[in-house]
Design brief:
The protein has about 325 residues and is of the alpha/beta class. Helices cover about 45% and strands about 15% of the residues. It folds into three domains: about 120 residues, NADH-ubiquinone oxidoreductase 51kDa subunit (Rossmann fold, 3-Layer(aba) Sandwich), CATH 3.40.50.11540; about 80 residues, Ubiquitin-like (UB roll); about 90 residues, NADH-ubiquinone oxidoreductase 51kDa subunit, iron-sulphur binding domain (de novo design (two linked rop proteins)), CATH 1.20.1440.230. The chain is globular and about 65 Å long.
Length: about 325
């Protein structure tokens, strides 16, 4: 959400950052890779590019990426630009070694590019003086779920989780958990992490990750087992279908998670999920199974009592429709 919002609202800043990055590595060509479904962002970028001098317009190309979760991974982007097939891979060489048209290729997200442009305008001291605690700088966060005003917000790095809720107009009702970092992120107990500083170093120390900047607050009346099952079903549907661990492994996980959510599990479904979440990482042709397994492991931990109840065909939560924003 944050990247497409930034492209739609501040396209010139993104282009400025891309030009700076290209200059730093002596790159001649710039490619802006954007999901075909993000029409407002695409239109804003094209309009902004049209205002640039001819020599810059000739260096920058906008490529519409196919719809799909894995299409945004860096190797998938390079593969699509080169051959029209947005499949990710972990097989060397990496894009910085050999990427678009066989050349070393620098890939950056648009938030990093926009920040580079701001620092170039305002100076490094400006950025260094932002932030709370030991953290420095600013970042974009997408707040969703049980908040009064969901959307993208800019916060100083190191701001506590509580500040995200406050900037989003406060919480709607009681909240039991928070999903940090999107679908490749982790579930966390909201009470334990309420004062969590949102900066990469502090989060890594707690086994968490900022990821794509999604902070989703899960209402206390929403079943965590069901919410996790819906995410696993989505991730399984987004398989690149190029290896067994992703195609069959994620499919099996999604089906077991669905049965548990529906309170109709097979005898060993919960044990299987625990085992598969540990066995799957590192076995796929890309990191898609790893991210899904990490999300599942966190759900099994944070919602442990709920999973145990669902294995006994009971639910500890008063049912409420689940709406989890796609990262």
């Amino acid at each position: 959400h944050k990247d497409r919002s930034l492209m739609a609202a501040r396209p010139q800043l993104v282009i400025d950052g891309a030009l700076l990055a290209a200059g730093a590595v002596n790159a001649d060509d710039i490619i802006i890779y954007i999901g075909a479904e993000h029409r407002a962002a695409d239109a804003a970028l094209r309009a902004a590019l049209g205002e640039r001098p001819t020599d810059i317009r000739g260096r920058v190309r906008i490529v519409q990426a196919p719809v799909g979760y894995v299409a945004g991974e860096e190797s998938a982007a390079v593969n699509f630009i080169n051959a029209g097939d947005a499949r990710p891979t972990t097989t060397p060489p990496r894009p910085f070694e050999r990427g678009v048209r066989g050349r070393p290729t620098l890939l950056q997200n648009v938030e990093s590019l926009a920040l580079a442009a701001l620092i170039a305008r305002r100076g490094a001291a400006w950025y260094q003086n932002l932030g709370q605690g030991q953290a420095h700088g600013i970042g974009l966060v997408t707040a969703s779920g049980a908040v009064n005003h969901a959307g993208v917000q800019e916060l100083e790095l190191g701001s506590p989780l509580a500040d995200v809720a406050a900037a989003a107009g406060g919480l709607r009702g009681d909240v039991q958990a928070v999903l940090l970092g999107g679908y490749f992120g982790t579930w966390a107990d909201v009470d334990e992490q309420w004062r969590l500083p949102l900066d990469p170093q502090s989060m890594r120390a707690r086994g968490l990750a900022f990821g794509c900047g999604v902070v989703h607050f899960l209402n206390a009346r929403t079943c965590g087992v069901e919410a996790t099952a819906r995410i696993m079903a989505y991730l399984a549907s987004q398989s690149a279908r190029q290896c067994g661990p992703c195609l069959f492994g994620l499919g099996a996980i999604a089906e077991a998670a669905r049965r548990l959510a529906a309170k109709s599990p097979q005898t060993d479904d919960l044990k299987r999920l625990h085992r598969w979440s540990g066995e799957l990482p590192g076995r796929g042709a890309c990191r898609h199974p790893d991210g899904a397994a990490g999300l599942l492991r966190s759900g099994l931990t944070v919602f442990a009592e709920d999973y145990a109840a669902h294995q006994r065909r009971r639910c500890l939560t008063i049912a409420e429709p689940v709406r989890v924003a796609v990262a």
